[in-house]
Amino acid sequence: MNMVKATAAEGAIELVPDVHWVGALDPGLRSFDIILKTANGTTYNSYVVRGSAGVAVIDTVKESFSDTFFRRLESVADYGEITTIVLNHLEPDHSGALPELLRRAPQAKLYISSRGGPMLKGLLHGEQLAYQPTRTGMEVDLGDRKLRFLQTPFLHWPDTQCTWLEDAGVLFSGDAFGCHFCDPRLFNDNVGDFRFSFDYYYAHLMRPFRSRVLDALELIEPLPLKVIAPAHGPILRDAPDRYVARYRELSASRLKNEAAEEKTLIIFYLSAYGSTRAMAESLAAGAEDATGVRVSLYDIEGGEVSPFVDLIEEADGLAFGSPTINGDAVKPVWDLLSSLAAVDIKGKLGAAFGSYGWSGEAVPMVEDRLRGLKLRVPVKGVRARLVPTPEELAQCRELGRELALHLTGRQESTEIDMAALA
Ligand code: FEO
What we know:
This protein has 2 domains: 244 residues, Ribonuclease Z/Hydroxyacylglutathione hydrolase-like (Metallo-beta-lactamase, Chain A); 143 residues, 3-Layer(aba) Sandwich (Rossmann fold), CATH 3.40.50.360. The protein is of the alpha/beta class and 422 residues long. Helix content is 31%, strand content 22%. Helix 6 packs antiparallel against helix 7 and helix 8 crosses helix 12. Strand 10, helix 4 and strand 11 form a beta-alpha-beta unit.
């Protein structure tokens, strides 16, 4: 391949014959979707594919960059030639210019994934846009070349898909394999070092759906890739397979469970005077009474959030111990719980416990948060006033035992009757 050192300061940029980048550069952006840092901005990548019987536009740009997009698009195609518009993903950074594009090219058919339909309606209130729902293997004929769709849901929205241009070996991958990295030299062999941005983007957008990433890789890895053309950041024409391999690497389990046949229960706690710690230790002892569960105990005060998040991602069950201070769970517990949006924890087992002085709100508040994160909370948590009594420690031990039985599938869902235990 001819590695031309083009830059995107002006006009459209050719990736391969009759395939052009017509996107927009946003070098001043410093945060994306509020939560992602973007040290040197981003790009909104849009592409034009010319065939003998039609022109396809793949993705558009954020609405505020429409003028740039249309100028570049007009440099390589007339609106009357556009037969096909593909949106690999409907988030507004890619669908922003869609309504205007359809006004300028009303004859074009719009292709989005079937899950995109309700989103299209929600995003474009008042606009009734007709669309063709896609499925894996479905093709669009452009005459001498074809586009083929691959459904890759949850990379990172339900609607996400990829589009494959077989004759040129180009995969238009949407947000997948992208990153927020703005460099007008566009191609991965020309731009600055973007490895950090690539991994950071994966960690925040793809990691919560890593099982879906692995499903998508099953579709993508067999393709004879020459170029990956993502919706953000550098176009990957030099060794694109390396980036596919990186996704597989990042989606693999970070921590090897040495006792893979055992279920794992992790107990996190904080303790001001040792009461919640004593409860955590009793809970651990109870879980260990039941066979088949490997129990780990961590004082949150002595660790960093990031490795804890890795542990949580791999665990089967999680118990959080927090004292109640000023009517709330303590901040390090909330900090850890608020970091879990980046990992897939849906369906894990959760529980809460902790000591309190006079009100004891922390346990139900943590339980609510765990339910909000879609964990199962099958056993009611244990609270102990000030210093736990032997009876309260016994309740903790029973909580641990019940959690272990749930983890190993030996217990149907029941809740401890606290009144009966009082
Ligand atoms: Fe680049 Fe999910 O939008």
